[in-house]
Amino acid sequence: MASTTRNSAFRQGVLAGLPFLLIGVPFAVLFGVVATEAGLNVAQTIGFSLLVIAGASQFTAIQLMTENAPVLIVITAALAVNLRMAMYSASLQPHLGEASFGQRALAAYLNVDASYALGIQKFEEEPDWPVIDKLMYFCGTMLFMFPLWVIGTWVGALTGDALPESLDLDFAMPIMFLALTAPMIKTLAHLAAAITSVIGALLLSFLPSGIGLLIAAMIAMAVGAEIERRRA
Amino acid sequence: MTYSATTLWTIVLILGVGTYLIRFSFLGLVGNRKMPDWVLRHLRYTPVAILPGLVAPLVMWPEATGGEPDAIRFAAAAVTLIVAWWWKNMLAGAGAGAVTLTILVWLAGAT
């Protein structure tokens, strides 16, 4: 019985992850093209996608490297873009904290925007799932995305041809994440947090990439939590 | 770029390790311990506090128009939000948003 549920949690995760390939794969190919054009060799380009697995921060690094920025600047700026993932990590802890150290280490490796957003949505829906099911779902979302992220980068690096952008894929990312987030807005506190997040991120967008979003998100969390506390 | 191969690999490795540590942070180090209620209360708002802000600049200043605010993309984003929220269904919202975008882009091109 338990293994049936586990299989089904994994399968649900795999299915939920599929639409995100539409964003991830073209993005990965594009990274391969841009990074090799900038002067990285194929191994370094794949190394980026394999180790960093974070599109926006990879593009930030390449952009600064084409300008021959100091190494410290490249690293600081690219890591700043990824700071939001510490919040993902904290937010996943109440759900995955009971998993073994090795399982948590694996989940951390696969903790990206898509897996986090899909995972946390499912965990809020199914808070009583055993931790192993939550873990299976979370990893399931990355079953195709992770290898295709690396392979896509490789293809882009080898061919130098980005996929055609005729489908307005640039806007697929906002659409997917908006569609995923909207159903999570269930209370006034959620709505206030979401609105704060949007306004904050736009107002603070002059800050280095990632920093404005982090500050906006912290304020938005405080707004949500405070409204919940007062209404409780 | 003028970095040596060693420097390039150093950048890749440090970014890889650094990003991993960011991802691992709370999940790895807090582990099984229960965080205080006020922290958990804040964490419940993480997804709605971060994902809207993550995409807001992409909606406001879309890449396709070179960063100019664009009514078509606003409309597509609005339809996505409304449909996904009303039916509590991500795929319905994403599908409706994609169809809206495609039709409006086509109409704008046809005029």
Mean pLDDT of chain B: 94
Q: Give helix % range of chain A.
A: over 70%
Rg of chain B (CA only): 21 Å
Number of helices of chain A: 13
User: SSE order of chain A in H/E notation?
Assistant: HHHHHHHHHHHHH
The oligomerization state is heterodimer
- Helix fraction of chain B, binned, reads over 70%
Number of helices of chain B: 5
Low-confidence stretches of chain B: none
Query: What fraction strand of chain B?
Result: under 5%
Structure commentary:
The complex is a heterodimer of chains A (232) and B (111). Chain A is 75% helix and 0% strand. By secondary structure, chain A is mainly alpha-helical. The N and C termini of chain B lie far apart (44 Å). Chain B has a domain at 49-110. Chain B has helices spanning 5-29, 37-43, 46-60, 71-86, 90-110. Chain B is an all-alpha fold. Chain B is flat, with a radius of gyration of 21 Å. At the A-B interface, helix 3, helix 4, helix 5, helix 6 and helix 7 of A face helix 1, helix 2, helix 3, helix 4 and helix 5 of B.
Which key terms come to mind for this protein?
heterodimer, A: 232 residues, mainly alpha, 13 helices, globular, B: 111 residues, flat
What would you say about this model in short?
The complex is a heterodimer of chains A (232) and B (111). Chain A is mainly α.
Please give the structural blueprint.
The complex is a heterodimer of chains A (232) and B (111).
Chain A: H1 2-17, H2 21-38, H3 42-51, H4 55-66, H5 71-81, H6 84-96, H7 101-109, H8 113-125, H9 131-140, H10 145-159, H11 172-181, H12 188-203, H13 211-231
Helix pairs in contact in A: 1-9, 2-3, 2-4, 2-10, 3-10, 4-5, 6-8, 8-9, 12-13
Chain B: H1 5-29, H2 37-43, H3 46-60, H4 71-86, H5 90-110
Helix pairs in contact in B: 4-5
